Batch of 2 targets.
Target 1
Amino acid sequence: MSATGIGAAVRRKEDFRFITGQGQYTDDVVRPGETRAVFVRSPHAHANIKSIDVSAAKAMPGVIDVLTGAQLATDKIGNLICGWMIHSKDGTPMKMAPHPALAASKVNCVGDAVAVVIAETVGQGKDAAEKVKVEYEVLSAVVDPAKAQAKGAPQIHPDIANNTIYQWHLGDAKATEAAFANAKHVTKLDIVNNRLVPNAMEPRAALAEYDAGTDNLTLWNTSQNPHVARLVIAAFVGMAPEHKLRVIAPDVGGGFGSKIFIYPEEVVCLWAARKLRRPVKWTSDRSEAFLTDAHGRDHITHAELALDGNGKILALRAKTIANLGAYMSTFSSSVPTYLYATLLSGQYDIPQIYCEVDAVYTNTAPVDAYRGAGRPEATFVVERLVEVAARQLNLEPAELRRRNFVKSFPHQTPVIMAYDAGDYNASMKKAMEMADVKGFAKRKREAARHGKLRGLGFSAYIEACGIAPSQAVGSLGAGVGLWESAEVRVNPTGSVEVLTGCHAHGQGHETTFAQLVSERLGIPFDSVSIVHGDTDKVQFGMGTYGSRSGAVGMSAIVKALDKIEAKAKKVAAFMLEAAEGDIEFKDGKFTVAGTDKSAAFGEVALNAYIAHKFTGAELEPGLKETSFYDPTNFTFPAGCHICEIEIDIETGKSEIVNWTAVDDFGTVINPMIVEGQVHGGIAQGVGQALMEGAVYSAEGQLVSGSFMDYTMPRAHDLPSFHVGLTETKAPSNPLGIKGCGEAGAIASPAAVINAITDAIGTEELAMPATANAVWAALQRATPRQAA
Amino acid sequence: MYNFTFHRPTTVRQAAGLLARNPDAKLLAGGHSLIPVMKQRLASPAALVDLGLVEGIVGVELKGRSVSIGAMTRHADVANSPVLKEVMPALASVPGSIGDPQVRNRGTIGGSIANNDPNADYPAACLGLGATIITNKRRIAADDFFTGMFSTALEEGEIIVRVSFPVAKKAGYEKFKHPASGFALVGVFVSKRGPDIRVAVTGAGANGVFRVPSFEEALKKRFSPKSIEGLTIPASGMNADIHASAEYRAHLVGVLARRALVKATA
Amino acid sequence: MPAVSMTVNGKAVSGDVEARTLLVQFLRENLRLTGTHVGCDTSQCGACVIHVDGIAAKSCTLLALQCEGAKITTIEGLAAADGPLHPMQEAFREHHGLQCGYCTPGMIMSALDIVRRRGNDLDEHTIREQLDGNICRCTGYHNIVKAIAAGAKEMGKGGTTQQAAE
């Protein structure tokens, strides 16, 4: 392994600008004549708009204009869409209600934008926004998805009965039913997967500029996928044709899914910038972000696991209600369906699985993909069921898992996925050793002497990443293909730019992608630049989410590098006056087999451009290749996390005393970055399990609407993590990469809750397991444990 | 935030004069409660009178059997005061637990007490030690000062100048942090100074900081955690929110009082 | 509009601002020092931490006018333009103490304040407790904690030891 090649913990190229304060995030970009947008938002969760009077606001100092939804409609700006079609079990298509960027007649959640003030400064904009008079007819609201389906619930969108978007299912209901009928033991759980607010540290922002001379629009945007944003804004919103719209996603301060989606604010900024002939910038306040960023999770599930007398799992069934909020966000429909139910087999050989999912509108912020997206919900169902079943059957949780692990590959689950490689016992075994599971009983006794309860929780998760084979997702309803593109541009001096359709917002692509290119071409790491995040530079791409950039994005680079090598060999053949078939390429050098004739990569690059050694008829000059890589399967990262927790009996406060993660991500390009991804994912999962929860009042007000009430994990809430790796290569891509971005968030909630319930001796514990919640659970538990 | 006029007096007298001339003015001390509220447009003073340059209201001094703390003394400076750490570390631990380090670098005792946030730490220390709040006009006993959430005995134009804490031989503060905000979900300050025994609770009560007579009575026999074992306070009148039920807060009052007593009697 | 002047990163600066202008707005908008970030509106996240007269503060909770005459240091002022990185900056890079980079300037400025108060030999528990005012959503803090411990130690070696005030 070279110091900068695949497998090396190379320090990141991108860090210099960030540690010196020279990052360029959207809000840092300033355009001449820039104005500021301030949105007027509904304070009500559900109301008809009777009238909007903007006259007083327009007269305020510094105000350029105040625009409303009525004008948006007049200008024929289209609605936002959800791009994944789900059909109900009766064959009817999902019911997608219109989502205008500015509500004109009705608001459906607190924070719904009804008007926008364009002013010289944010302060002036805010002063004026208060002067916009909106007359509302307040309607009763519903925030609980189960209640939203009930008779007599407030009707959120016209003609959508019971506020139900779809009633979907997957698996064989009858066969599952039969398996349950034959079971010796059935474990049942009612689970709420709590609603989360993504809270990337950089709030969303958009800056739009219109060039009247060329009729071109440019949007700087906090986006994980600028090309998808351009496609949706062009083709569905109808703002401008694709070739007249440039989307730039510069440095982006974290995404976690929340910056995949196309939001009203960027549409409004583009529209206003063209209308007013001035650049328009909007930067979200954190309070605004709480109300308007797409939230995550929010499932209510009843789940059951059927086992025989030997602890062999026979079947699993689940009925889930998924809260999608007031509108269907960009990919929201896919999250509780194909990203969720397809993973309900976990790491286990489960003969029958049946899952039903109802997706429901409520008067809350839209819900969409958040780190893990569907897979954390599935893992929580499976790993809680398995853990509880083991406890009920008096089996070691590890033993029950071992008995049921998938052991041979490929393995077709009953829920679409075909697992292609893995060694689940290897991860669990290593994790158990690292976590010193053998010594746990002793540690538990010691803790008890200090008035503390100790618990141990496992989570053996699996995820489907490398999203995704286009044909497969197309057959499941996706509106787009999920391949990735790469363009490798070799300069005459031998340095290389790689244009990728992936987008980095913390993942370190500028480093890992360069490691791949540097190793493959045998050129210095510093001679490689990675270009991303600008639709004028990169032709097309699908962006970064779903742990796809390694498995799909880097595979596209590999394919393009294959083409570069092939063409360079042709050039080298002319240079070295040899047959193309005799040219070999290794360590940055082209040689003629069996001779000492050679040319360095840089020399070949120069010759490709000066083209002195060949004619255009023989070979086109230049050295630049493009590839579109479409994966043949999902990848299946898997592993085992073990959480050891200590609980203060008197206060119910939990402290994670040890965390072990052993993951199989296939090939690892940069272990330092991979471990960092695991750490961050665990923190988010621990956040979900112990402290985070978006809470709405019955009237639809977001009670946890700031960092004063929504508990973010802080340094002192977490331990240092013990992270290990096992490796089975992903057979479906040339590098054998499985992906690592979401694993921590997927694995960890179940590990935490399994640990706490182990400690307190009751399974009745919802997330977030706050100190109050654990204390209350202890009060309900046996008197022996309740202090 | 709404705009305002900004004044920087250098004496308490000037500050008082500015308050008198600007009826909608507010005093700006550390600003770590006021500025966030103004940013949310929940407060809209027409003028701010910044006490940052006012002389003579900063510092921690031992005066006889009392510790006197200037109103503009930052939390970090109180927490790290060598004098205070020596004579009454329990009081030093109170600002040491407020907010986070950056907040402690700016926030002041006067600002905290004048604001009387129901989850703030200092009110528990004031009430739990029987402090005297000294203003430009008078001296107010802590027992009379805190009159309900965000409400105090301060009158228009009255400026806190110093706070005087009697030195208690035995004192302790125990806080259960609000997991999100860092304020006190519940905080209990206990002290014993001769026959004067005090148990003051912040964070828990719907009306702000309060004393617990039943605990104080029980502690008169013996100032020890054992004396209040098994004692609780009723959940009625406790705050309830998404972070803690009234029952849980009431329970924590007992737990934290015992833990504070462990510290106080260590 | 009132005038304000202060020293930022060793340079005298001044400007006319509305009284309601926050220090962070003055730094970002008037001086175009955009390394200082805004991540919340409740003084919680610490993305905006800078030093006022050598002491860490949240620039989102200070009025520019309160800083009249003060010496402000921002992330841009830690290392000279063509000089070496500050040891704490270097430690964040070496230990992968950042991912998206948004919280990083505030983290580094807070880390320096921890060193000021607690010295160069910092244990994990101290660092975690003292990072209470800074939120990171990417790293799980693991590598930030490592970076701060290493950076603090390096500052001690390099003679940039600062007297621990606490």
Target 2
Amino acid sequence: MNSFSYVRPDEIDVAIDDLSVHHAAKFIAGGTNLLDLMKENVERPARLVDINRLPLQTIDDTAEGGLRLGALVTNADTAYNEQVEKRYPLLSQAILAGASPQLRNMATNGGNLFQRTRCYYFYDTDMPCNKRKPGSGCGAINGYNRIHAILGTSDSCIATHPSDMCVALRALDAVVHVSGRLGERTIPMADFHRLPGNTPQYDNTVQPGELVTAIELPAKGFADHYAYLKLRDRASYAFALVSVAVGLDINNDGTITEARIALGGVAHKPWRRPESEEQLVGQSASKEVFQLVADSIIDGAKGYGHNTFKVELARRAIVRALMQASKLEKIS
Amino acid sequence: MQSTSILSAEVTVALPEKSLVTLTINGEKKQLELAPWTTLLDALREYLDLTGTKKGCDHGQCGACTVLVDGKRINSCLTLAVMKEGASITTIEGLATVDENATVQLHPLQDAFIQHDAYQCGYCTPGQICSAVGLMNEGRAKTTDDIRELMSGNICRCGAYPHIVDAISEVMQIDKNS
């Protein structure tokens, strides 16, 4: 790890100002990803601004009937929060599918949004990586790319976003609150993470000096019909090869009135295709309908060799998650 | 051109100051002077001689460094000591108690690990036991499947998992066949 200076402000404004006026400064909260990357020399901040004492530690009801998750509430406290478990079980399940209990006790909601890719070439400073070192090339495209993206890729980068939580947040249409020197603004989850294009060094649309203060969940939680299906190389504590978050609204007569389907492990951001979800509206739940929708969601998916299996895996995972959410198949 | 130009350009910044960090370790208040980049794990092992907590992967992947911070289990390799200012830390050395006759009473989990032969090389054991204490504090595990899932952050390369689950389920009074 490189040497760095350290401060621990108590106020949001002080933290934002400190980050803005110091060269190569970074916020640190749980530290589970940042410190790991610093040990690998992938991140080399000159200053750490510890935000753990800022007043962003609560989960509160919103006036709109939703829930506001403080940026510094841990992943564990969020997943086990009574309101989250009851009203947003999809989010609770997705969080608990990620990392380990120890890491979930440390990792924060804000930090989870900023997780960086687990691409091996990004982590290895001896390898080319356009995300770590713009212009150096991509080792993964023609290299070992088993864990890499099949949708929304570019010639510069085929990295995936590793989060489980963010896949559920994307399905739930969560909104991220950020604060900066110019004031506060909100970013819908749809626009928070970005596709790599020719600037893969930018994971998201947060501007330098901005601080995530909260994640807001809209009232609709899909608590009656939901599923988070995560497929990985071992039974627990591994990143997703493919994951699917599903939320369905189903009428008393069995007609689907709304569908949300978000994919993890397949792209640079949680992947959704709203026009495919629309195909489910007005339909009754059935495997045949779900297969058509799955084909539509992964339309255009492209494998790079080692990860080509993900195309079929994603298709089947979408169908299975929809079967589980509509209760046509039991969750095993 | 001098070949050392890159190096000499970089080494112009003075090293940041060490700072005083106060931690309560196994019930005792300790004050340490630490550089900010000292992890909690290194503080325990290198500055407090508490070498029961093990350094395995040093990247939060193996769980050997698990300690309890204010009762919650964390990976001590992925946090800086300075970030835990004022916190109460429990390590494997702090689990046993000593009664008025100076007799050491092992923690029930320590006893159960011995009874069930829940280790081979023993390197992961302090982390396994601290993690299991955290698991019991959380109160979420109801079955042995739950124990396996919620202990997945602790790797045992000897493969003593069945006995580890036996030891924990006995202390938690969970049916071994659940």
